[in-house]
């Protein structure tokens, strides 16, 4: 077996040192009845690299690859071009095969990269501090709600209608068990801007409200000014949690921190990570200085070593499960370190200029695509504002059309029927994302296919 | 061999002292590296993009005007920055990484290659199901292996890491109890458990109580039985446990918990010790997470990502989270909220957006298929053999508190008993760094004073183990003799011991422009 270095002679010699006859003897503490005498049945035996590669390539070949045709899916996961150097660097064994940096003297590479990541995220989000990553955007959003409960000692969270429905589902699942009260609603396609949703949220804030959770740009792609909502939440002693599923948007639109958000969380997958069928992704989590001791997850901080040289360590770990056990701020242990590194490398390559240019390109392509698509009979644009994703109202139900388009190799968007099954008022909605990877020809192809499908 | 300017071979001149400060702070190949904020510029970039066509903005007047202050680096600068940083890290690729309970085994590169196939890496989680049949097939394949290897009834693939898997298991337990109208409030956890166990139980609303251990390092069955009752929802047992011992009484524990109306959660962090030889389902377990980044070799990546699928018994299977993949002949479909219907109406719901850690499933699949049932049996055998070899090779020099409790499983536990006055486990750990090894896990489990938990894994050769044993023996002897030089260790690492107290007292968590405006090169 190519991954196992011991020879039979090694094993015999080592058993001699141990004073055992066979390896099986070392399992003497396992009750006889539970000890299997041979390989588990129903599973194949070991295989060569060639054989494994052949089997897995066959499975990969049964999928329609995003990059092989017109592609317009978003709704929480975006297809961006990732520079080649990102994947090269994260595959260096010293990053890929290292552990959580518990021994800082020999983990400065990971620690410095995390410190840089935290700073980048804080600046991108317009916040004071960020942590060293969470699993993904959806779990980060729930952790933010829990943190707001701890800070305000109140148990009611108001969730925007524009929050990603999977994020709402995750919070709803958790709240069933924790006793948190969630007020949720679903989007309204007749509302060209998210104003009604924000007004509803403002009206609902009361003395029991711990936080208001709002996504920007939201699930339909609307972009909104959250300043008023933040001010009104603060007046009532509640926090504003902003969720960002598309970090590239923050190269173009004002950050949630600048608009008054207290906690900003989101998905970082757009930068460096890729689509990967939904994971692993990287949750981003940032807040104000004054709340840092209430944060979940790992934090990397600057310090000095015994000879006075600058260095970095994991810090404030008295918040964490391995020290505080049942009193920890969260149970999170493993985070998304390598995805955070990929995010940070990609953002270092972009820099402010590159991020702004990338965001401008996304926006311009999306605007051009929207203008082209609304010329198709039976297609209307729902949005007043958007960044690189917008919602179309079709004259027919969107979900079967998406499926039909896929048969022709066009991945035309995410139907609201997929996201909100059974909601008739949303059934004709199609969420279309347009990133820098989309070309005008792709848009024409989608427009023509839609025209045919809606005829 | 090097030549001087006259073309003759040179020989080192020994007159100069060995330790001189250099102008740069570099020490030959050990290179200091500044922060990106000190290197980059906001108008520099490493990405060339076409110019955006002119359009009428649809941003609604929300343009970001204030500077974001993100430094940009050209590609050569980025490659050099991160390559230099990488060289300040220890890694499995460099040597034995004996972190107990963390399972730092070799990460096969075939796994990386497979995870990067566009058919897995470049597909969107919300693509129409007909376009991702291969992805569902892969998730189903990994799930089926896990079910067979554990002898359980069902598997939830979506949990993102071990602690998230614990959450999944406890939510299923709570759902099952609530379904029978039984609102139990207490979870019992052994003192030796990972911190995630009590944290998870608290995170989903349970009170946590400790179960004591016996003198030989196992769960005290009688004390556990005495505490069981109508308020106990379940127990969380790590098996093999964090002392590196198999819980011999596991079946009796399960029977007692079940008889009292509770459920048994097993922390499967140490499944690598028994994979292919023992099926937890045969021991009465109701739910267990499996860290794919431990047992199934997906890389740890400096702290993540992980993946924590959970296997369930018949009793808990109906409560498993959404979404999951079902196979119907040659066809696969996703069971989500809308399709859960009457067959899965008891599911406790969704705990994450999308389907879980696909990139980790691909890697784990490559690992499983490569080893096969026979190879996995050898994996656990060699992991346990290596750990026992370390235990018996060092127990004359280091105290092994449970050395008489029978063979250890995949990890060997030592304590600081017998070190000279004032010398600690930390000193031994830092001494190992100078020997070129990552230290063992320190001060865990909490049930042993100054614990040193050594997990070599099955992917170490005998020669590597012998070198490690020699190094740890040497450091242990120095700690027992009270060698003051050990207090200064490490001296050969990129940094000396770091001031963690100062870091926590006045946290500096983000980089700030130096007030003077001058450049702050790495000190």
Which value, in Å, is the CA radius of gyration of chain B? Answer: 27 Å
Briefly, what CATH class of the largest domain in chain A? Alpha Beta
The shape of chain A is globular
Q: What name does the CATH topology of the largest domain in chain B carry?
A: Aspartate Aminotransferase, domain 2
Q: Greatest contact pair? A: A-B, 220 and 208 residues
Query: What oligomeric state best describes the polypeptide chains here?
Result: heterodimer
First-to-last CA distance of chain B: 34 Å
CATH fold-type name of the largest domain in chain A: Aspartate Aminotransferase, domain 2
**C-alpha-based Rg of chain A, rounded:** 25 Å
Q: Roughly what percent helix of chain A?
A: 25-40%
Structural class of chain B: alpha/beta
> Strand pairing plus helix content of chain A: what structural class?
alpha/beta
Named at the architecture level, the CATH assignment of the largest domain in chain B is 3-Layer(aba) Sandwich
Task: Based on the model shown, name its key terms.
heterodimer, A: 455 residues, alpha/beta, Aspartate Aminotransferase, domain 1, Aspartate Aminotransferase, domain 2, 2 domains, 7-stranded mixed beta sheet, 4-stranded antiparallel beta sheet, 14 helices, globular, B: 523 residues, 3-stranded antiparallel beta sheet, 12 strands, 9% strand, disordered C terminus
Descriptive notes:
The complex is a heterodimer of chains A (455) and B (523). Chain A has 455 residues and is α/β, with parallel strands linked by helices. Chain A has two domains: 119 residues, Aspartate Aminotransferase, domain 1 (Alpha-Beta Complex), CATH 3.90.1150.10; 264 residues, Aspartate Aminotransferase, domain 2, CATH 3.40.640.10. Chain A contains 14 helices and 13 strands. In chain A, helix 3 runs antiparallel to helix 11, helix 6 packs across helix 7 and helix 11 crosses helix 14. Chain A starts with 7 loop residues before the first helix and ends with a helix. A seven-stranded mixed beta sheet of chain B has the order 1-7-6-5-4-2-3, sandwiched between helices. In chain B, strands 10-12-11 form a three-stranded antiparallel beta sheet. Chain B has two domains: 256 residues, Aspartate Aminotransferase, domain 2 (3-Layer(aba) Sandwich); 124 residues, Aspartate Aminotransferase, domain 1, CATH 3.90.1150.10. Chain B is of the alpha/beta class. The radius of gyration of chain B is 27 Å and the shape is globular. In chain B, helix 5 packs parallel to helix 11 and helix 11 crosses helix 13. The interface between A and B is large, with 220 and 208 residues.
């Amino acid at each position: 077996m190519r991954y196992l270095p011991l020879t039979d002679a090694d094993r015999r010699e080592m058993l001699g040192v141990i004073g055992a006859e066979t390896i099986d003897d070392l399992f003497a503490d396992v009750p006889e009845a539970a000890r299997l005498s041979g390989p588990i049945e129903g599973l194949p035996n070991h295989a060569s690299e060639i054989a494994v590669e052949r089997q897995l390539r066959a499975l990969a070949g049964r999928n329609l690859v995003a990059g092989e045709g017109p592609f317009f899916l978003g709704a929480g996961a975006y297809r961006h071009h990732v520079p080649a150097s990102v994947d090269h660097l994260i595959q260096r064994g010293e990053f890929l095969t290292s552990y959580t940096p518990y021994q800082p003297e020999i983990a400065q590479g990971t620690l410095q990269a995390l410190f840089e990541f935290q700073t980048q995220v804080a600046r991108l989000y317009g916040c004071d501090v960020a942590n060293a990553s969470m699993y993904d955007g959806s779990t980060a959003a729930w952790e933010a709600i829990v943190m707001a409960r701890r800070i305000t000692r109140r148990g009611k969270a108001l969730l925007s209608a524009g929050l990603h429905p999977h994020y709402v589902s995750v919070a709803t699942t958790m709240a069933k068990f924790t006793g948190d009260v969630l007020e949720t609603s679903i989007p309204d396609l007749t509302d060209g801007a998210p104003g009604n949703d924000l007004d509803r949220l403002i009206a609902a804030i009361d003395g029991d409200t711990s936080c208001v959770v709002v996504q920007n740009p939201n699930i339909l792609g609307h972009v909104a000014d959250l300043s008023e909502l933040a001010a009104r939440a603060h007046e009532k002693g509640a926090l504003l949690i902003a969720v960002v599923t598309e970090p590239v948007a923050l190269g173009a639109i004002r950050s949630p921190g600048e608009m008054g958000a207290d906690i900003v969380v989101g998905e970082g997958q757009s930068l460096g990570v890729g689509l990967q069928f939904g994971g692993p992704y990287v949750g981003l989590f940032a807040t104000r200085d004054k709340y840092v001791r209430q944060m979940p997850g790992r934090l990397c901080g600057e310090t000095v070593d015994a000879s006075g040289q600058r260095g970095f360590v994991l810090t404030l770990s008295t918040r964490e499960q391995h020290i505080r056990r049942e009193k920890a701020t969260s149970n999170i242990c493993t985070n998304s370190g390598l995805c955070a590194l990929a995010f940070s490398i990609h953002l270092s390559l972009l820099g402010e200029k590159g991020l702004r240019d990338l965001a401008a390109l996304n926006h311009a392509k999306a605007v051009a695509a929207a203008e082209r698509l609304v010329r198709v009979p039976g297609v209307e644009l729902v949005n007043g504002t958007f960044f690189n994703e917008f919602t179309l109202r079709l004259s027919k139900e969107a979900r079967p059309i998406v499926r039909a388009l896929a048969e022709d190799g066009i991945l035309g968007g995410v139907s609201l029927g997929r996201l909100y099954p059974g909601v008739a008022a949303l059934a004709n909605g199609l969420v279309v994302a347009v990133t820098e990877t989309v070309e005008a020809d792709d848009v024409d192809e989608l427009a023509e296919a839609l025209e045919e499908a809606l005829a | 061999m090097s030549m001087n300017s006259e073309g003759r071979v040179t020989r080192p001149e020994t007159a100069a002292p060995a330790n001189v400060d250099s102008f740069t702070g570099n020490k030959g190949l050990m290179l200091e590296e500044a922060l990106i904020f000190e290197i980059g510029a906001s108008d520099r970039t490493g990405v060339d993009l076409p110019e955006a066509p002119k359009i009428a903005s649809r941003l609604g007047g929300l343009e970001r005007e204030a500077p974001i202050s993100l430094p940009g680096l050209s590609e050569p600068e980025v490659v050099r920055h991160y390559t230099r940083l990488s060289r300040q890290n220890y890694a499995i690729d460099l040597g034995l990484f004996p972190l107990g309970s963390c399972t730092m085994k070799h990460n096969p590169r075939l796994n990386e290659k497979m995870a990067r196939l566009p058919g897995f890496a470049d597909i969107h989680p919300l693509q129409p199901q007909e376009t991702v049949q291969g992805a569902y097939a892969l998730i189903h394949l990994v799930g089926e292996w896990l079910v067979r290897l554990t002898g359980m009834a069902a598997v939830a693939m979506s949990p993102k890491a071990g602690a998230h898997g614990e959450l999944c298991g406890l939510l299923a337990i709570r759902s099952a109890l609530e379904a029978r109208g039984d609102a139990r409030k207490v979870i019992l956890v052994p003192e030796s458990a990972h911190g995630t166990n009590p944290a998870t139980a608290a995170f989903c609303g349970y009170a946590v109580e400790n179960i004591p251990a016996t003198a030989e390092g196992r769960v005290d069955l009688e004390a556990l039985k005495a505490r069981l009752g109508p308020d106990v929802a379940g127990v969380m047992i790590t098996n093999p446990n964090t002392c590196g011992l198999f819980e011999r009484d596991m079946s009796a524990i399960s029977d007692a918990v079940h008889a009292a109306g509770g459920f048994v959660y097993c922390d499967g962090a140490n499944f690598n010790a028994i994979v292919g030889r023992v099926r937890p389902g045969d021991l009465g377990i109701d739910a267990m997470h499996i860290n794919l980044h431990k047992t199934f070799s997906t890389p740890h990546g400096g702290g993540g990502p992980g993946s924590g699928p959970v296997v369930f018994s018949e009793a808990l299977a109906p409560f498993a989270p959404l979404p999951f993949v079902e196979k119907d002949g040659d066809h696969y479909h996703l069971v989500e909220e809308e399709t859960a219907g009457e067959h899965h109406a008891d599911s406790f719901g969704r705990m994450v957006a999308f389907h879980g850690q696909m990139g980790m499933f691909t890697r784990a699949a490559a690992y499983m298929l490569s080893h096969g049932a026979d190879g996995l049996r050898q994996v656990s055998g060699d992991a346990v053999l290596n750990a026992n070899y370390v235990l018996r090779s060092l127990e004359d020099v280091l105290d092994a508190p449970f050395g008489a409790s029978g063979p250890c499983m995949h990890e060997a536990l030592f304590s600081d008993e017998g070190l000279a006055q004032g010398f600690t486990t930390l000193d031994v750990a830092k001494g190992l760094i100078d020997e070129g090894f990552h230290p063992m896990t320190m001060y865990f489990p909490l049930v042993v004073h100054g614990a040193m938990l050594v997990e070599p894994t099955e992917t170490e050769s005998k020669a590597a183990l012998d070198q490690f044993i020699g190094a740890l023996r040497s450091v242990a002897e120095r700690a027992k003799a009270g060698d003051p030089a050990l207090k200064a260790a490490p001296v050969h690492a990129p940094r000396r011991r770091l001031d963690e107290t100062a870091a926590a007292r006045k946290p500096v968590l983000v980089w700030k422009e130096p007030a003077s405006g001058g450049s702050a090169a790495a000190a």
